[in-house]
Design a protein that fits this description.
This protein is an all-alpha fold and 79 residues long. The protein is built from three helices and no strands.
C-alpha cells in the first residue's frame, strides 16, 4: 500500500496543504506514520541467528523511542 502511486500522491497533497495552512497536528501525524513505516521496514527480515533478531529488536525499540520523543516535544513542550 505504501508503494501505491495514488496513496503517495494523496500523502504529498495532504503534506503540501498541511505546510501551507500550518496544520501542526496533520504534519505530526504524517511524520509518525512515515517514521513508523520506515522503522518497521528496516527492522523486518531477520535471519535465523539470535544476534540478528536482538539487533533488529533494539533498532525497533530505539526508533520507536525517537519517534515518541519527537512527538512529545512538538505536541507538549514546544508551543
Amino acid at each position: 500500500m505504501a508503494a501505491d502511486p495514488r496513496v503517495l500522491f494523496g500523502t504529498v497533497v495532504i503534506f503540501v496543504l498541511a505546510v501551507l495552512f500550518r496544520w501542526k497536528y496533520v504534519l505530526l501525524f504524517l511524520f509518525a506514520i512515515g517514521a513508523t513505516m520506515t522503522v518497521l521496514k528496516y527492522t523486518g527480515g531477520g535471519g535465523p541467528s539470535d544476534i540478528v533478531v536482538d539487533r533488529n529488536m533494539m533498532l525497533f525499540i530505539g526508533g520507536t523511542i525517537v519517534i515518541a520523543i519527537v512527538l512529545i516535544y512538538f505536541l507538549f513542550i514546544r508551543d
